[in-house]
Design brief:
The complex is a heterodimer of chains A (310) and B (303). By secondary structure, chain A is an alpha/beta fold. Chain A has helices at residues 2-19, 46-59, 71-80, 98-104, 134-141, 172-182, 198-207, 217-222, 243-248, 264-267, 270-281, 283-290, 297-308, and strands spanning 35-41, 63-67, 86-89, 112-123, 131-133, 163-166, 193-194, 211-216, 228-233, 238-239, 255-262. Chain A is elongated and about 65 Å long. Chain B folds into 2 domains: 17-55; 61-299, MetI-like (MetI-like fold, Orthogonal Bundle). Chain B is globular and about 70 Å long. Classes of the chains: A alpha/beta (310), B mainly alpha (303).
Chain lengths: 310, 303
Protein backbone atom coordinates (compact mmCIF):
# COMPACT_ATOMS: atom_id res chain seq x y z
CA UNK A 1 0.00 0.00 0.00
CA UNK A 2 2.90 2.35 0.68
CA UNK A 3 3.71 2.64 -3.01
CA UNK A 4 0.13 3.65 -3.77
CA UNK A 5 0.40 6.33 -1.09
CA UNK A 6 3.60 7.58 -2.70
CA UNK A 7 1.83 7.77 -6.02
CA UNK A 8 -1.08 9.66 -4.48
CA UNK A 9 1.37 12.04 -2.83
CA UNK A 10 3.04 12.67 -6.20
CA UNK A 11 -0.34 13.55 -7.66
CA UNK A 12 -1.17 15.88 -4.79
CA UNK A 13 2.21 17.56 -5.20
CA UNK A 14 1.63 18.10 -8.90
CA UNK A 15 -1.77 19.65 -8.18
CA UNK A 16 -0.19 21.88 -5.56
CA UNK A 17 2.58 23.10 -7.86
CA UNK A 18 0.15 23.86 -10.64
CA UNK A 19 -2.15 25.66 -8.24
CA UNK A 20 0.60 28.12 -7.30
CA UNK A 21 0.24 31.53 -8.80
CA UNK A 22 -3.51 31.51 -8.38
CA UNK A 23 -3.43 35.24 -7.82
CA UNK A 24 -1.75 36.03 -11.11
CA UNK A 25 -3.55 38.25 -13.51
CA UNK A 26 -5.94 39.73 -10.98
CA UNK A 27 -4.34 43.13 -11.34
CA UNK A 28 -6.15 46.23 -10.10
CA UNK A 29 -9.85 46.87 -10.45
CA UNK A 30 -11.98 46.81 -7.36
CA UNK A 31 -15.12 45.03 -8.67
CA UNK A 32 -16.96 43.37 -5.83
CA UNK A 33 -19.26 41.34 -8.08
CA UNK A 34 -18.94 37.58 -7.93
CA UNK A 35 -20.51 34.60 -9.62
CA UNK A 36 -20.06 32.44 -12.65
CA UNK A 37 -20.92 33.12 -16.28
CA UNK A 38 -21.22 30.29 -18.76
CA UNK A 39 -20.85 31.24 -22.40
CA UNK A 40 -20.99 28.83 -25.32
CA UNK A 41 -21.67 28.97 -29.05
CA UNK A 42 -20.14 30.10 -32.31
CA UNK A 43 -16.43 29.58 -32.79
CA UNK A 44 -16.33 32.77 -34.90
CA UNK A 45 -17.50 34.79 -31.89
CA UNK A 46 -15.26 32.69 -29.60
CA UNK A 47 -12.15 34.91 -29.71
CA UNK A 48 -14.28 38.00 -29.06
CA UNK A 49 -15.97 36.36 -26.07
CA UNK A 50 -12.60 35.17 -24.75
CA UNK A 51 -11.09 38.64 -25.00
CA UNK A 52 -14.15 40.11 -23.27
CA UNK A 53 -14.00 37.46 -20.55
CA UNK A 54 -10.31 38.06 -19.98
CA UNK A 55 -10.64 41.84 -19.65
CA UNK A 56 -13.76 41.56 -17.52
CA UNK A 57 -12.19 39.06 -15.13
CA UNK A 58 -9.12 41.23 -14.75
CA UNK A 59 -11.41 43.98 -13.44
CA UNK A 60 -13.73 41.69 -11.50
CA UNK A 61 -11.61 38.93 -9.96
CA UNK A 62 -14.64 37.46 -8.19
CA UNK A 63 -16.32 36.51 -11.46
CA UNK A 64 -15.51 33.26 -13.22
CA UNK A 65 -16.26 33.19 -16.93
CA UNK A 66 -16.01 30.10 -19.14
CA UNK A 67 -16.24 30.26 -22.91
CA UNK A 68 -17.01 27.20 -25.01
CA UNK A 69 -17.01 26.94 -28.79
CA UNK A 70 -19.47 24.22 -29.75
CA UNK A 71 -20.76 26.18 -32.75
CA UNK A 72 -23.82 28.41 -33.12
CA UNK A 73 -26.25 25.48 -33.33
CA UNK A 74 -24.66 23.50 -30.50
CA UNK A 75 -24.57 26.65 -28.39
CA UNK A 76 -28.28 27.36 -28.83
CA UNK A 77 -29.13 23.78 -27.96
CA UNK A 78 -27.40 24.15 -24.58
CA UNK A 79 -28.74 27.67 -24.15
CA UNK A 80 -32.35 26.62 -24.70
CA UNK A 81 -31.87 23.75 -22.25
CA UNK A 82 -30.91 26.37 -19.66
CA UNK A 83 -27.33 25.12 -19.39
CA UNK A 84 -25.60 28.36 -20.40
CA UNK A 85 -26.08 32.03 -19.52
CA UNK A 86 -25.02 33.56 -22.82
CA UNK A 87 -25.02 32.04 -26.30
CA UNK A 88 -22.62 33.27 -28.99
CA UNK A 89 -24.06 33.20 -32.50
CA UNK A 90 -22.86 34.05 -36.00
CA UNK A 91 -26.49 34.18 -37.22
CA UNK A 92 -29.83 35.08 -35.63
CA UNK A 93 -31.57 32.35 -33.66
CA UNK A 94 -33.49 29.99 -35.95
CA UNK A 95 -37.23 30.71 -35.87
CA UNK A 96 -38.28 27.23 -36.88
CA UNK A 97 -36.02 25.01 -34.86
CA UNK A 98 -34.40 26.88 -32.00
CA UNK A 99 -37.07 29.36 -30.91
CA UNK A 100 -39.60 26.58 -30.10
CA UNK A 101 -36.86 24.75 -28.19
CA UNK A 102 -36.30 27.79 -25.98
CA UNK A 103 -40.04 28.36 -25.57
CA UNK A 104 -40.55 24.78 -24.47
CA UNK A 105 -38.21 25.23 -21.50
CA UNK A 106 -39.29 28.82 -20.82
CA UNK A 107 -35.95 30.36 -21.70
CA UNK A 108 -36.44 34.00 -22.72
CA UNK A 109 -33.57 36.00 -24.08
CA UNK A 110 -32.41 39.18 -25.77
CA UNK A 111 -30.56 39.50 -29.04
CA UNK A 112 -27.53 41.77 -28.74
CA UNK A 113 -25.21 42.42 -31.64
CA UNK A 114 -21.60 42.64 -30.45
CA UNK A 115 -19.44 42.69 -33.59
CA UNK A 116 -19.32 42.05 -37.33
CA UNK A 117 -17.80 39.40 -39.53
CA UNK A 118 -17.04 39.18 -43.22
CA UNK A 119 -16.13 36.29 -45.45
CA UNK A 120 -13.12 37.02 -47.59
CA UNK A 121 -12.49 35.46 -50.98
CA UNK A 122 -8.80 35.13 -51.70
CA UNK A 123 -6.56 33.71 -54.38
CA UNK A 124 -2.95 32.70 -54.72
CA UNK A 125 -0.57 35.63 -55.22
CA UNK A 126 0.08 34.54 -58.81
CA UNK A 127 -3.60 34.33 -59.69
CA UNK A 128 -4.42 37.98 -60.10
CA UNK A 129 -8.13 38.55 -59.77
CA UNK A 130 -9.38 41.99 -58.86
CA UNK A 131 -13.07 41.51 -58.57
CA UNK A 132 -15.83 38.95 -59.10
CA UNK A 133 -19.55 39.63 -59.38
CA UNK A 134 -22.01 37.68 -57.25
CA UNK A 135 -23.28 36.01 -60.44
CA UNK A 136 -19.77 34.84 -61.28
CA UNK A 137 -19.35 33.52 -57.74
CA UNK A 138 -22.62 31.62 -58.05
CA UNK A 139 -21.51 30.11 -61.35
CA UNK A 140 -18.23 29.09 -59.78
CA UNK A 141 -19.50 27.64 -56.50
CA UNK A 142 -23.01 26.32 -57.15
CA UNK A 143 -23.86 22.64 -57.03
CA UNK A 144 -22.68 20.78 -60.12
CA UNK A 145 -20.52 23.67 -61.34
CA UNK A 146 -18.06 22.61 -64.05
CA UNK A 147 -15.98 25.80 -63.96
CA UNK A 148 -12.31 24.81 -64.07
CA UNK A 149 -10.77 28.14 -65.11
CA UNK A 150 -11.93 31.64 -64.27
CA UNK A 151 -11.78 32.48 -67.99
CA UNK A 152 -14.90 30.34 -68.38
CA UNK A 153 -16.98 32.81 -66.35
CA UNK A 154 -15.36 36.07 -67.46
CA UNK A 155 -13.39 36.73 -70.64
CA UNK A 156 -10.89 39.00 -68.93
CA UNK A 157 -10.18 36.65 -66.05
CA UNK A 158 -7.00 34.53 -65.95
CA UNK A 159 -6.87 31.17 -67.70
CA UNK A 160 -5.05 29.31 -64.92
CA UNK A 161 -6.50 26.01 -63.81
CA UNK A 162 -8.21 26.47 -60.43
CA UNK A 163 -7.79 24.56 -57.21
CA UNK A 164 -10.64 25.42 -54.87
CA UNK A 165 -10.57 25.60 -51.08
CA UNK A 166 -13.41 26.17 -48.64
CA UNK A 167 -14.74 25.33 -45.19
CA UNK A 168 -16.33 21.96 -44.46
CA UNK A 169 -20.09 21.52 -44.44
CA UNK A 170 -20.41 21.75 -40.63
CA UNK A 171 -19.10 25.27 -40.54
CA UNK A 172 -21.23 28.38 -40.08
CA UNK A 173 -19.12 30.09 -42.73
CA UNK A 174 -20.14 27.40 -45.23
CA UNK A 175 -23.83 27.77 -44.33
CA UNK A 176 -23.69 31.53 -44.68
CA UNK A 177 -21.70 31.57 -47.93
CA UNK A 178 -23.88 28.99 -49.68
CA UNK A 179 -27.04 30.74 -48.53
CA UNK A 180 -25.90 34.17 -49.74
CA UNK A 181 -24.15 33.18 -52.95
CA UNK A 182 -26.04 30.09 -54.11
CA UNK A 183 -29.42 31.00 -52.65
CA UNK A 184 -29.78 27.91 -50.54
CA UNK A 185 -27.98 26.70 -47.46
CA UNK A 186 -25.77 23.74 -48.32
CA UNK A 187 -25.95 24.25 -52.10
CA UNK A 188 -22.31 23.97 -53.15
CA UNK A 189 -20.08 22.16 -55.58
CA UNK A 190 -18.35 19.26 -53.89
CA UNK A 191 -15.04 19.10 -55.76
CA UNK A 192 -13.12 21.50 -53.56
CA UNK A 193 -10.67 20.84 -50.75
CA UNK A 194 -12.55 21.32 -47.48
CA UNK A 195 -11.11 21.99 -44.05
CA UNK A 196 -12.70 23.05 -40.77
CA UNK A 197 -9.42 24.73 -39.92
CA UNK A 198 -9.12 28.12 -41.63
CA UNK A 199 -5.35 28.06 -41.20
CA UNK A 200 -5.23 25.01 -43.47
CA UNK A 201 -7.24 26.85 -46.12
CA UNK A 202 -4.84 29.79 -45.93
CA UNK A 203 -1.84 27.51 -46.39
CA UNK A 204 -3.53 25.66 -49.24
CA UNK A 205 -4.31 28.81 -51.21
CA UNK A 206 -0.91 30.27 -50.44
CA UNK A 207 0.91 27.20 -51.69
CA UNK A 208 -1.13 26.23 -54.75
CA UNK A 209 -0.83 27.94 -58.10
CA UNK A 210 -4.42 28.63 -59.08
CA UNK A 211 -5.63 28.39 -55.46
CA UNK A 212 -8.92 30.13 -54.71
CA UNK A 213 -11.04 29.90 -51.60
CA UNK A 214 -13.13 31.61 -48.93
CA UNK A 215 -12.87 31.86 -45.14
CA UNK A 216 -13.35 34.26 -42.23
CA UNK A 217 -12.00 37.77 -42.72
CA UNK A 218 -9.73 37.72 -39.64
CA UNK A 219 -7.69 34.92 -41.20
CA UNK A 220 -7.09 37.10 -44.25
CA UNK A 221 -6.05 39.97 -41.99
CA UNK A 222 -3.41 37.76 -40.40
CA UNK A 223 -2.03 36.65 -43.77
CA UNK A 224 -2.62 39.63 -46.03
CA UNK A 225 0.92 39.77 -47.36
CA UNK A 226 0.70 36.25 -48.74
CA UNK A 227 -2.73 36.28 -50.33
CA UNK A 228 -4.55 38.19 -53.06
CA UNK A 229 -7.89 39.61 -51.91
CA UNK A 230 -10.82 39.51 -54.31
CA UNK A 231 -13.48 42.22 -54.22
CA UNK A 232 -17.17 41.39 -54.61
CA UNK A 233 -19.53 43.24 -56.92
CA UNK A 234 -23.16 42.87 -55.87
CA UNK A 235 -24.45 45.19 -58.55
CA UNK A 236 -23.23 48.51 -57.19
CA UNK A 237 -19.55 48.34 -57.93
CA UNK A 238 -16.62 46.39 -56.59
CA UNK A 239 -16.19 46.37 -52.79
CA UNK A 240 -13.29 44.78 -50.95
CA UNK A 241 -13.74 43.54 -47.43
CA UNK A 242 -12.11 45.76 -44.81
CA UNK A 243 -12.93 46.73 -41.24
CA UNK A 244 -14.85 49.75 -42.61
CA UNK A 245 -16.80 48.10 -45.42
CA UNK A 246 -17.80 45.15 -43.24
CA UNK A 247 -18.92 47.28 -40.29
CA UNK A 248 -20.93 49.58 -42.55
CA UNK A 249 -22.50 46.65 -44.39
CA UNK A 250 -21.20 47.94 -47.75
CA UNK A 251 -19.37 44.67 -48.36
CA UNK A 252 -22.40 42.81 -49.63
CA UNK A 253 -23.57 40.14 -49.40
CA UNK A 254 -20.77 38.50 -47.45
CA UNK A 255 -20.81 40.50 -44.22
CA UNK A 256 -22.90 39.59 -41.24
CA UNK A 257 -23.53 40.66 -37.66
CA UNK A 258 -22.28 38.57 -34.74
CA UNK A 259 -24.48 38.20 -31.68
CA UNK A 260 -24.54 37.33 -28.03
CA UNK A 261 -27.83 36.07 -26.61
CA UNK A 262 -28.07 36.54 -22.83
CA UNK A 263 -31.07 34.87 -21.20
CA UNK A 264 -33.40 37.09 -19.16
CA UNK A 265 -32.88 34.84 -16.19
CA UNK A 266 -29.10 35.22 -16.42
CA UNK A 267 -29.38 38.99 -16.84
CA UNK A 268 -30.93 39.17 -13.40
CA UNK A 269 -27.61 37.93 -12.02
CA UNK A 270 -25.40 40.99 -11.35
CA UNK A 271 -22.35 39.31 -12.85
CA UNK A 272 -23.99 38.58 -16.21
CA UNK A 273 -25.59 42.02 -16.42
CA UNK A 274 -22.26 43.69 -15.63
CA UNK A 275 -20.50 41.51 -18.22
CA UNK A 276 -22.95 42.35 -21.01
CA UNK A 277 -22.80 46.05 -20.12
CA UNK A 278 -19.03 45.82 -20.24
CA UNK A 279 -19.10 44.15 -23.66
CA UNK A 280 -21.41 46.74 -25.17
CA UNK A 281 -19.49 49.69 -23.68
CA UNK A 282 -16.06 48.39 -24.65
CA UNK A 283 -16.95 46.72 -27.94
CA UNK A 284 -14.15 48.58 -29.71
CA UNK A 285 -11.23 47.52 -27.53
CA UNK A 286 -12.48 43.94 -27.23
CA UNK A 287 -12.84 43.69 -31.01
CA UNK A 288 -9.35 45.07 -31.47
CA UNK A 289 -7.83 42.60 -29.01
CA UNK A 290 -9.56 39.68 -30.70
CA UNK A 291 -9.00 40.98 -34.27
CA UNK A 292 -12.67 41.02 -35.08
CA UNK A 293 -14.53 43.73 -36.97
CA UNK A 294 -16.15 46.08 -34.41
CA UNK A 295 -19.71 47.42 -34.53
CA UNK A 296 -20.45 50.77 -36.10
CA UNK A 297 -21.56 53.48 -33.67
CA UNK A 298 -25.12 53.08 -34.84
CA UNK A 299 -25.02 49.34 -34.17
CA UNK A 300 -23.49 49.98 -30.75
CA UNK A 301 -26.33 52.33 -29.83
CA UNK A 302 -28.84 49.72 -30.85
CA UNK A 303 -27.02 47.11 -28.77
CA UNK A 304 -27.03 49.41 -25.73
CA UNK A 305 -30.75 49.96 -25.99
CA UNK A 306 -31.38 46.26 -26.48
CA UNK A 307 -29.65 45.66 -23.17
CA UNK A 308 -30.90 48.76 -21.39
CA UNK A 309 -34.56 48.07 -20.88
CA UNK A 310 -35.00 45.44 -18.24
CA UNK B 1 10.73 -27.81 -48.47
CA UNK B 2 12.56 -28.69 -51.66
CA UNK B 3 15.90 -28.25 -49.94
CA UNK B 4 14.78 -30.68 -47.26
CA UNK B 5 13.66 -33.18 -49.91
CA UNK B 6 17.03 -32.99 -51.63
CA UNK B 7 18.80 -33.54 -48.35
CA UNK B 8 16.78 -36.67 -47.71
CA UNK B 9 17.42 -38.01 -51.21
CA UNK B 10 21.10 -37.19 -50.94
CA UNK B 11 21.52 -39.92 -48.38
CA UNK B 12 19.65 -39.44 -45.13
CA UNK B 13 21.33 -36.32 -43.85
CA UNK B 14 18.89 -35.03 -41.25
CA UNK B 15 19.54 -31.27 -41.46
CA UNK B 16 20.45 -29.48 -44.65
CA UNK B 17 23.20 -26.89 -44.36
CA UNK B 18 21.96 -23.42 -45.19
CA UNK B 19 22.62 -22.62 -48.80
CA UNK B 20 23.81 -19.18 -49.82
CA UNK B 21 20.42 -18.21 -51.20
CA UNK B 22 18.65 -19.13 -47.98
CA UNK B 23 21.19 -17.17 -46.01
CA UNK B 24 20.68 -14.19 -48.28
CA UNK B 25 16.93 -14.37 -47.78
CA UNK B 26 17.41 -14.50 -44.03
CA UNK B 27 19.64 -11.46 -44.15
CA UNK B 28 17.29 -9.56 -46.48
CA UNK B 29 14.37 -10.24 -44.18
CA UNK B 30 16.27 -9.04 -41.17
CA UNK B 31 17.33 -5.89 -43.02
CA UNK B 32 13.74 -5.21 -44.10
CA UNK B 33 12.60 -5.42 -40.47
CA UNK B 34 15.32 -2.98 -39.45
CA UNK B 35 14.37 -0.55 -42.21
CA UNK B 36 10.72 -0.55 -41.14
CA UNK B 37 11.69 -0.12 -37.50
CA UNK B 38 13.98 2.75 -38.48
CA UNK B 39 11.21 4.34 -40.55
CA UNK B 40 8.79 4.25 -37.62
CA UNK B 41 11.34 5.75 -35.25
CA UNK B 42 12.43 8.32 -37.81
CA UNK B 43 8.88 9.56 -38.28
CA UNK B 44 8.40 9.88 -34.54
CA UNK B 45 11.73 11.66 -34.20
CA UNK B 46 10.93 14.15 -36.97
CA UNK B 47 7.57 14.87 -35.35
CA UNK B 48 9.13 15.36 -31.92
CA UNK B 49 11.91 17.52 -33.30
CA UNK B 50 9.41 19.66 -35.17
CA UNK B 51 7.25 20.21 -32.10
CA UNK B 52 10.24 20.73 -29.82
CA UNK B 53 11.86 23.31 -32.10
CA UNK B 54 8.60 25.30 -32.15
CA UNK B 55 7.69 25.02 -28.53
CA UNK B 56 10.78 24.70 -26.38
CA UNK B 57 11.23 28.47 -26.06
CA UNK B 58 7.78 28.88 -24.59
CA UNK B 59 8.02 25.96 -22.20
CA UNK B 60 8.95 27.71 -18.98
CA UNK B 61 7.51 28.45 -15.56
CA UNK B 62 5.51 31.42 -16.86
CA UNK B 63 3.79 29.15 -19.33
CA UNK B 64 2.76 26.77 -16.56
CA UNK B 65 1.64 29.48 -14.14
CA UNK B 66 -0.29 31.77 -16.51
CA UNK B 67 -3.88 31.48 -17.60
CA UNK B 68 -5.21 31.46 -21.14
CA UNK B 69 -5.18 34.85 -22.81
CA UNK B 70 -6.07 36.41 -26.12
CA UNK B 71 -2.59 37.92 -26.08
CA UNK B 72 -0.28 35.09 -27.17
CA UNK B 73 2.69 36.56 -25.27
CA UNK B 74 0.91 36.36 -21.94
CA UNK B 75 -1.00 33.13 -22.44
CA UNK B 76 -0.30 30.04 -20.37
CA UNK B 77 -1.77 26.65 -19.74
CA UNK B 78 -2.39 26.64 -15.99
CA UNK B 79 -6.17 26.19 -16.03
CA UNK B 80 -5.91 23.39 -18.59
CA UNK B 81 -3.10 21.66 -16.67
CA UNK B 82 -4.97 21.70 -13.36
CA UNK B 83 -8.14 20.70 -15.20
CA UNK B 84 -6.35 17.69 -16.67
CA UNK B 85 -4.85 16.70 -13.29
CA UNK B 86 -8.27 16.94 -11.62
CA UNK B 87 -9.78 14.82 -14.38
CA UNK B 88 -7.07 12.20 -13.93
CA UNK B 89 -7.65 12.14 -10.15
CA UNK B 90 -11.42 11.62 -10.59
CA UNK B 91 -10.81 9.06 -13.30
CA UNK B 92 -8.32 7.09 -11.15
CA UNK B 93 -10.60 7.20 -8.10
CA UNK B 94 -13.32 5.67 -10.25
CA UNK B 95 -11.46 3.09 -12.34
CA UNK B 96 -9.22 1.57 -9.64
CA UNK B 97 -11.90 0.19 -7.31
CA UNK B 98 -14.44 -0.61 -10.03
CA UNK B 99 -11.91 -2.04 -12.48
CA UNK B 100 -10.07 -4.18 -9.92
CA UNK B 101 -13.29 -5.47 -8.36
CA UNK B 102 -14.62 -6.45 -11.79
CA UNK B 103 -11.36 -8.18 -12.67
CA UNK B 104 -11.38 -10.11 -9.38
CA UNK B 105 -14.98 -11.18 -9.86
CA UNK B 106 -14.41 -12.37 -13.42
CA UNK B 107 -11.18 -14.24 -12.59
CA UNK B 108 -11.83 -15.63 -9.12
CA UNK B 109 -15.58 -15.97 -8.67
CA UNK B 110 -17.36 -16.04 -12.01
CA UNK B 111 -18.45 -19.39 -13.34
CA UNK B 112 -17.44 -19.39 -16.98
CA UNK B 113 -20.09 -21.89 -17.96
CA UNK B 114 -22.89 -19.46 -17.08
CA UNK B 115 -24.18 -17.47 -20.05
CA UNK B 116 -24.36 -14.15 -18.19
CA UNK B 117 -20.71 -14.29 -17.21
CA UNK B 118 -19.72 -15.00 -20.79
CA UNK B 119 -21.95 -12.14 -21.92
CA UNK B 120 -20.20 -9.74 -19.53
CA UNK B 121 -16.83 -10.93 -20.74
CA UNK B 122 -17.63 -10.49 -24.45
CA UNK B 123 -19.10 -7.07 -23.76
CA UNK B 124 -16.05 -5.82 -21.92
CA UNK B 125 -13.81 -6.88 -24.78
CA UNK B 126 -16.07 -5.10 -27.27
CA UNK B 127 -16.31 -1.97 -25.15
CA UNK B 128 -12.54 -1.56 -25.37
CA UNK B 129 -12.93 -0.94 -29.11
CA UNK B 130 -15.83 1.54 -29.00
CA UNK B 131 -14.82 4.99 -30.37
CA UNK B 132 -14.28 7.58 -27.67
CA UNK B 133 -16.89 9.99 -29.02
CA UNK B 134 -19.57 7.41 -28.19
CA UNK B 135 -18.54 7.54 -24.54
CA UNK B 136 -18.79 11.33 -24.79
CA UNK B 137 -22.39 11.04 -25.93
CA UNK B 138 -23.06 8.54 -23.13
CA UNK B 139 -21.57 10.99 -20.62
CA UNK B 140 -23.66 13.84 -22.02
CA UNK B 141 -26.88 11.85 -21.90
CA UNK B 142 -26.51 10.19 -18.50
CA UNK B 143 -24.06 12.27 -16.47
CA UNK B 144 -24.31 15.87 -17.71
CA UNK B 145 -28.03 15.72 -18.47
CA UNK B 146 -30.62 13.04 -17.82
CA UNK B 147 -30.68 10.95 -14.64
CA UNK B 148 -27.68 12.48 -12.88
CA UNK B 149 -27.77 16.04 -14.36
CA UNK B 150 -24.35 16.93 -13.05
CA UNK B 151 -23.79 19.68 -15.62
CA UNK B 152 -20.54 20.14 -17.57
CA UNK B 153 -18.29 19.78 -14.53
CA UNK B 154 -15.09 17.98 -13.52
CA UNK B 155 -16.97 15.05 -11.99
CA UNK B 156 -18.89 14.39 -15.22
CA UNK B 157 -15.73 14.72 -17.35
CA UNK B 158 -13.67 12.45 -15.08
CA UNK B 159 -16.36 9.77 -14.93
CA UNK B 160 -16.81 9.85 -18.72
CA UNK B 161 -13.08 9.32 -19.20
CA UNK B 162 -13.28 6.61 -16.55
CA UNK B 163 -15.97 4.73 -18.46
CA UNK B 164 -13.86 5.08 -21.59
CA UNK B 165 -10.77 3.41 -20.13
CA UNK B 166 -12.46 1.03 -17.70
CA UNK B 167 -12.25 -1.95 -20.13
CA UNK B 168 -8.49 -1.43 -20.40
CA UNK B 169 -8.12 -1.63 -16.60
CA UNK B 170 -10.35 -4.69 -16.35
CA UNK B 171 -8.50 -6.56 -19.08
CA UNK B 172 -5.07 -5.68 -17.65
CA UNK B 173 -6.27 -6.54 -14.14
CA UNK B 174 -7.55 -9.94 -15.23
CA UNK B 175 -4.29 -10.79 -16.93
CA UNK B 176 -2.33 -9.78 -13.83
CA UNK B 177 -4.56 -11.91 -11.60
CA UNK B 178 -4.40 -14.86 -14.00
CA UNK B 179 -0.61 -14.70 -13.92
CA UNK B 180 -0.57 -15.52 -10.21
CA UNK B 181 0.08 -19.30 -10.10
CA UNK B 182 -2.78 -21.38 -8.77
CA UNK B 183 -0.36 -23.14 -6.38
CA UNK B 184 -0.32 -19.91 -4.33
CA UNK B 185 -4.11 -19.99 -4.04
CA UNK B 186 -4.18 -23.70 -3.28
CA UNK B 187 -1.49 -23.30 -0.63
CA UNK B 188 -3.42 -20.53 1.04
CA UNK B 189 -6.67 -22.48 0.95
CA UNK B 190 -4.94 -25.57 2.31
CA UNK B 191 -3.82 -23.56 5.33
CA UNK B 192 -7.45 -22.73 6.08
CA UNK B 193 -7.82 -19.30 4.53
CA UNK B 194 -11.20 -18.35 3.05
CA UNK B 195 -11.43 -17.37 -0.61
CA UNK B 196 -11.61 -13.70 0.32
CA UNK B 197 -8.53 -13.97 2.58
CA UNK B 198 -6.68 -15.72 -0.19
CA UNK B 199 -7.51 -12.97 -2.68
CA UNK B 200 -6.81 -10.07 -0.33
CA UNK B 201 -3.57 -11.40 1.21
CA UNK B 202 -2.04 -13.51 -1.56
CA UNK B 203 -3.44 -12.89 -5.02
CA UNK B 204 -3.89 -9.10 -4.99
CA UNK B 205 -0.45 -8.20 -3.58
CA UNK B 206 1.15 -10.44 -6.18
CA UNK B 207 -0.93 -8.87 -8.96
CA UNK B 208 -0.37 -5.22 -8.00
CA UNK B 209 2.45 -4.50 -10.49
CA UNK B 210 0.32 -5.69 -13.39
CA UNK B 211 -2.78 -3.89 -12.18
CA UNK B 212 -0.89 -0.64 -11.56
CA UNK B 213 0.65 -0.80 -15.02
CA UNK B 214 -2.81 -1.28 -16.50
CA UNK B 215 -4.22 1.65 -14.54
CA UNK B 216 -1.43 4.00 -15.56
CA UNK B 217 -1.63 3.01 -19.22
CA UNK B 218 -5.38 3.59 -19.04
CA UNK B 219 -4.83 7.05 -17.55
CA UNK B 220 -2.25 7.75 -20.25
CA UNK B 221 -4.91 7.08 -22.82
CA UNK B 222 -7.48 9.21 -21.00
CA UNK B 223 -5.16 12.20 -20.70
CA UNK B 224 -4.99 12.71 -24.47
CA UNK B 225 -8.71 12.42 -25.15
CA UNK B 226 -10.40 15.51 -26.59
CA UNK B 227 -13.59 14.44 -28.33
CA UNK B 228 -15.51 13.04 -25.33
CA UNK B 229 -14.64 16.08 -23.24
CA UNK B 230 -15.88 18.48 -25.91
CA UNK B 231 -19.15 16.54 -26.10
CA UNK B 232 -19.46 16.54 -22.31
CA UNK B 233 -19.14 20.33 -22.42
CA UNK B 234 -15.63 21.26 -21.36
CA UNK B 235 -15.08 24.95 -22.07
CA UNK B 236 -12.42 26.28 -24.43
CA UNK B 237 -11.52 29.35 -22.44
CA UNK B 238 -11.18 29.07 -18.67
CA UNK B 239 -9.04 31.46 -16.66
CA UNK B 240 -9.36 29.91 -13.22
CA UNK B 241 -8.37 26.65 -11.61
CA UNK B 242 -11.07 24.11 -10.80
CA UNK B 243 -12.31 24.62 -7.24
CA UNK B 244 -13.85 21.21 -6.78
CA UNK B 245 -15.74 18.40 -8.42
CA UNK B 246 -18.59 20.72 -9.44
CA UNK B 247 -16.34 23.25 -11.17
CA UNK B 248 -16.31 24.04 -14.88
CA UNK B 249 -13.09 23.09 -16.55
CA UNK B 250 -10.95 22.79 -19.63
CA UNK B 251 -8.23 20.25 -20.40
CA UNK B 252 -4.85 20.35 -22.13
CA UNK B 253 -5.80 18.73 -25.47
CA UNK B 254 -8.71 21.17 -25.82
CA UNK B 255 -6.49 24.16 -25.07
CA UNK B 256 -3.89 22.95 -27.58
CA UNK B 257 -6.55 22.49 -30.25
CA UNK B 258 -7.90 25.99 -29.59
CA UNK B 259 -4.45 27.53 -30.02
CA UNK B 260 -3.79 25.68 -33.27
CA UNK B 261 -7.06 26.81 -34.83
CA UNK B 262 -6.66 30.53 -34.04
CA UNK B 263 -5.54 32.97 -36.75
CA UNK B 264 -1.81 33.46 -36.11
CA UNK B 265 0.78 35.84 -37.49
CA UNK B 266 4.23 37.01 -36.44
CA UNK B 267 2.86 39.54 -33.96
CA UNK B 268 0.41 37.28 -32.20
CA UNK B 269 1.55 33.75 -32.75
CA UNK B 270 -0.32 30.98 -30.98
CA UNK B 271 1.55 28.12 -32.64
CA UNK B 272 4.53 28.07 -30.24
CA UNK B 273 1.98 27.96 -27.41
CA UNK B 274 0.35 24.92 -28.97
CA UNK B 275 3.76 23.26 -29.41
CA UNK B 276 4.73 24.02 -25.81
CA UNK B 277 1.38 22.59 -24.70
CA UNK B 278 2.07 19.41 -26.66
CA UNK B 279 5.51 19.13 -25.05
CA UNK B 280 4.06 19.59 -21.57
CA UNK B 281 1.37 17.00 -22.24
CA UNK B 282 4.07 14.62 -23.44
CA UNK B 283 6.17 15.24 -20.34
CA UNK B 284 3.20 14.41 -18.10
CA UNK B 285 2.53 11.33 -20.23
CA UNK B 286 6.15 10.15 -20.11
CA UNK B 287 6.18 10.60 -16.33
CA UNK B 288 3.12 8.38 -16.06
CA UNK B 289 4.61 5.73 -18.31
CA UNK B 290 7.85 5.99 -16.34
CA UNK B 291 5.97 5.25 -13.12
CA UNK B 292 4.34 2.24 -14.80
CA UNK B 293 7.69 0.80 -15.88
CA UNK B 294 9.24 1.47 -12.48
CA UNK B 295 6.34 -0.21 -10.67
CA UNK B 296 6.57 -3.25 -12.89
CA UNK B 297 10.31 -3.67 -12.46
CA UNK B 298 10.27 -2.95 -8.75
CA UNK B 299 7.48 -5.31 -7.72
CA UNK B 300 7.53 -7.97 -10.38
CA UNK B 301 7.81 -11.45 -8.91
CA UNK B 302 9.30 -14.47 -10.59
CA UNK B 303 7.54 -17.70 -9.70
Amino acid sequence: MRKLLTFAACGAFALGVAACGDDDGNGGGGGDISGTIRIDGSSTVGPFAQAAAEEFQARNPGVKVTVGTSGTGGGFEKFCAGETDISDASRPIDEEEEVPLCEKSNVTYREVQVANDGISITTNKNLEVDCLTTEQLTELWQQGSKVKRLSQIGPKLPDTELTLFGPGTDSGTFEFFTEEINGEEGNSRKDYQPSEDDNVLVQGIEGTEGGLGYFGFSYYEQNKDNLNLVGVDAGSGCVRPSFETIASGNYKPLSRPLYMYPSEKALRKPAVKAFMDYVVQNYDSIAEASQIVPMSQQQAQKATSALGAS
Amino acid sequence: MSAHGEAVRAGGKAIARPTTSRRAKDLAFRMAMLVFLGLAILMLAVLLWDVASDGVDRLNLDFVTSFASIDADRAGIQAALTGTLWLMAVCAAFIIPVGVATAIYLEEYADNTKWYNRLIEVNIQNLAAVPSIVYGILGLAFLVRGPLSLGPVILAGGLTLGLLVLPVVIIAGREAIRAVPSSIREGSMALGATQWQTIWRQVLPAAIPGIATGVILALSRAIGETAPLIVVGAATFVAFNPQGLDSNFTAMPIQIFDWISRPSNELNNYLPLAAAGILLLMIVLLCMNGIAIWLRNRYEQKW
